[in-house]
Amino acid sequence: MVRPTFEWICEIEPPTRPDLMHVRHQIGVLSKVASAYLIPDNHVGRATVSSVAVAHEVDRMGGRAIACLNARDRNALGFQRDLLTSAAYGVDEFLFVYGDDPASGSRTGQLTVRSMIDHLRRFSHEHHTPFRAGATTRLRPLPDWKRGADFLFVQVSFDLDALLAWRDSVNFDGEVYAGVMVLPSASMARKLVADIPEIAVPDAWIDAVEADRDAGVDLACGLASAIADSGAFDGVHLIPGVRYRETATRLEARRLRPAAPARPDGPPPPST
User: Fold this and answer.
1) 269 in any annotated domain
2) Is residue 169 part of a domain?
3) Torsion-angle region of residue 165: left (phi > 0), alpha (psi -120 to 50) or beta?
4) Residue 45: what pLDDT?
5) Is the pLDDT of residue 187 over 80?
6) pLDDT at 47
7) What are the pLDDT digits (tens) for 160-172?
8) Mean pLDDT of 218-245
9) pLDDT at 44 (0 to 100)
10) Does 271 reside within a domain?
């Protein structure tokens, strides 16, 4: 599969009701700037429409989708079902994640990201399906088994220097996508820091978003542009959330296209 020089993978919000209208709207709005779409899998602990089904809908609309599947909510048989369904639908790219611990404290315990990749490789061989598997990583040394993934999604960061230093330290043959999140509010930023200690949001970003609700979009688009300009990554995993309309408008205004992103039109956002 031929890839553009730099990819803009936009995460969309999956529906929590049996209605795909909001998904279709997000895809339509983001289609001018997105190379592909990441479809989360019950990522906030609420049941959503199957990421495989939503990925199939993206394909029907002419887009490329990466379906996220988490180990938390499925056992080995359920995962086999997902792979069979994906093969039938033509969904061939996956991001495997462990999944946040549920509030109940219970999970199936049958699967890990490592075992999901192993299952997928065997399934691909047996059914002659060219599946691709991705894994997530923090800004830490990469475990050897993750080198068997086809691509990596790097945790959300607000620090360009930290991202570049990590990338310079890691040897990986596949695509590597840096995570960038649009902060919709200062309260959301503080909650993110409290819930995920590994993610540090600069005070300057929080202050900016508190003073101007549009600042989160501007800062995220600026950071994504700086990552593209660095040449260190194959793309960004952009999480626009509820601000997907404003994000699409900003990126389009910067004349960023999936195959030929423009240079940032200003200095990169502040880092920690």
Assistant:
1) no
2) yes
3) alpha
4) 65
5) yes
6) 87
7) 999 999 999 999 9
8) 96
9) 62
10) no
Locus of tokens 């999956």: 14
Cβ burial of 173 (10 Å; 0-12, 13-18, 19+) is: exposed
Q: What domain count does the chain have?
A: 1
In this structure, what token pair is assigned to residue 49? 């429409």
Please say if the pLDDT value at position 272 is more than 90. Answer: no
pLDDT in tens, 14-62: 899 999 999 999 999 999 999 999 999 986 667 899 999 999 999 999 9
Please, which contacts does 166-172 make with residues 24 or more away whose CB atoms are closer than 8 Å?
Answer: 166/139, 166/140, 167/232, 167/233, 168/232, 169/141, 170/141, 170/142, 172/142, 172/147
CA distances to 13, 72, 94, 171 from 97, rounded to whole Å, are 17, 9, 10, 21
- Kindly report the average pLDDT of the chain as a whole number: 89
The residue assigned the tokens 């969309």 is 12
Q: What is the pLDDT of residue 260?
A: 39
CB 65 within 8 A of CB 36: yes
104 contacts 143 by C-beta, under 8 angstroms: no
For residues 83 and 119, what is the distance between their CA atoms, to the nearest angstrom? 9
- Domain boundaries, position 229: 7-253
Burial-class residue 105 by CB neighbours within 10 Å (0-12, 13-18, 19+).
exposed
CATH number at residue 15: 3.20.20.220
Q: For 212, phi and psi rounded to 5 degrees?
A: -150, 115
